[in-house]
Amino acid sequence: MKHNLKLGLSFLLLLTSWLILPQMVQAQDPPTHGNVSTHIYQDRDFFSQAQIDNLEKQNDKLADSKQRQITKIFILSPKKLGDDFELAEDYMYKNDFGDIENPAGNMQEKIVKKKSTDSSGGYKGLGTEQSIRKYENILVFVPEKNSLTFAPSSFTFGRYDKLNWKKLTFGHKHQLNNSTSSQAKGVFKIATRINKQQLKLSQRGKPARNGRPWVEFLEKFATALLFTIPLMLIWAYLRFGSRSTGTSSNDMGWYDGWVERGYYDYMYDHYHDDYHDDHQDDWHDDPY
Q: What is the pLDDT of residues 50-109, one digit of tens each?
């Protein structure tokens, strides 16, 4: 009886300690595959079944294309992005495609690394990794942050820039700030536009290139001009601006430049010589 009582008390003590002491929490890894369909993961009710079916049909067409592209869509809470990931606040408006610091780029990197590793943890090689990057397109939406980011595959990466992204999201970005159903419609419309563009790009034999290089040139030129204008103004002021002569006259600015360039010396000498020639005899005749 006493033995059973001791065992019971020991078990109760262990159970109490287990409940009171802090537990080790295993780091959470973001998902890398779909849960509601082959290419769609959502950690809550988001897309309707009709929207899911439509998006999967779009993926079927992409998979049958020449370059066999796919688009994976992840609807995630900030916690699902991983314990080591910090969500930036401005990626809704500033999209650096493929940047591992935005949700889509980070997710793409994890998927590529996972697919490039065998069951024993060995690296399959650079060739395998490059072939995976060639077709993996990742779209991530975080409803709590209204954050929609996209990471294109290496084959289609060259087509995407800020202007193209604005075109793809035009008319639907405002829906991402509303109710869940409105957000789902917005993400669905934008994803459909992306898939249509991806299908065209996937029929090509060579990787896509930016069709508007002049846009990048103008952006760089405008940035450079913005930084150089103050320096140009300072240089112009130092080069052509007036220098103080100690006079209170407002009209002496031209006088400074006139004197500085030697015009005064020339004109003064010329005037002095003329005067001297005209009155030389008078000076000699004058006894004083």
A: 999 999 999 999 999 999 999 999 999 988 887 667 776 665 555 667 788 888 998 999
Q: Is-above-0.70 flag for pTM?
A: no
Q: Sketch out the chain's domains with CATH numbers.
A: 30-204 (3.10.310.50)
Specify the 3-state DSSP secondary structure of 24. Answer: coil
pLDDT tens column, 243-253: 555 555 454 45
Contact between 139 and 74 (Cβ < 8 Å): yes
Dihedral angle sign, alpha carbons of residues 143, 148, 153, 155 = positive
DSSP string, 48-110: -HHHHHHHHHHHHHHHTSTT--EEEEEE--GGGG-TT----SSTTT---TT-TTSHHHHHHHH
H or E element: which one contains 184?
helix 180-202
Closest CA to 43 of 141, 176, 152: 141
Residues 6+ away with beta carbon under 8 Å from 118: 124
Strands in 40-42's sheet, in edge-to-edge order, are 40-42, 70-75, 136-142, 147-151
